[in-house]
Amino acid sequence: MSISQVNIDAFRAINDIGIKNVSLDPIAIFMADYMIFVLALGMLVYWFTRTNKNRMMVIQGGVAFVIAEVLGKIAGTMYYHNQPFAELPHVNQLIAHAVDNAFPSDHSILFFSICFSFWLVRKKEGWIWLIVAVIVGISRIMVGVHYPGDVLTGALIGICAAVFSYWLVPKLSFVTSVLTKYEKVEQAVLPIKAKTEDQSNHF
């Protein structure tokens, strides 16, 4: 399908930043391609603080991502276009990427579903995660693999899925049951003094 001129103009404005400021290109590449590993590390750190609050937050983020991915795939069947570097001339393409359906942005779906889940539970540092998600979205435009519309749609899907998961997951008794059984096994293998609620608030 054809891309709106507004979407193209917005893409050009952001993608051209890397042409005018070459020093920003390595940052854009890192955020677009490698920040996903920092997010994964963050989830592991939250999980192994071994507090119920953090573990439920990680589960909610995981569930939100799955829901958002499903919604994203459905959206992708309704609207299709290739990456900007495959459709427009003189694109500042900074990373290699297959030519396929760029709508919506999978990276935006991933980061906003999980980072917004973090924000819903831990608003103090959750703002940092939200800023990271926004920067990752912008970086995907800067490196030439997504239009702003792809990123905004992915962000919206991710946020909606995070809110739904935040409401749903605590109501699922089997989640609590599985987590309790897991923690019993973990405690047997790696015993640790249980944290109080006051201590857990520091993580």
Automatic annotation (TrEMBL):
The chain crosses the membrane at residues 27-49, 61-81, 101-120, 127-145, 151-169. The keyword Thylakoid does not apply. The keyword Transmembrane applies. InterPro entries: PAP2/HPO, PAP2/HPO_sf, UPP_Pase. Keywords: Membrane, Transmembrane, Transmembrane helix. Residues 60-166 form the Phosphatidic acid phosphatase type 2/haloperoxidase domain. This is Undecaprenyl-diphosphatase. The lineage of its organism: Bacteria, Bacillati, Bacillota, Bacilli, Bacillales.
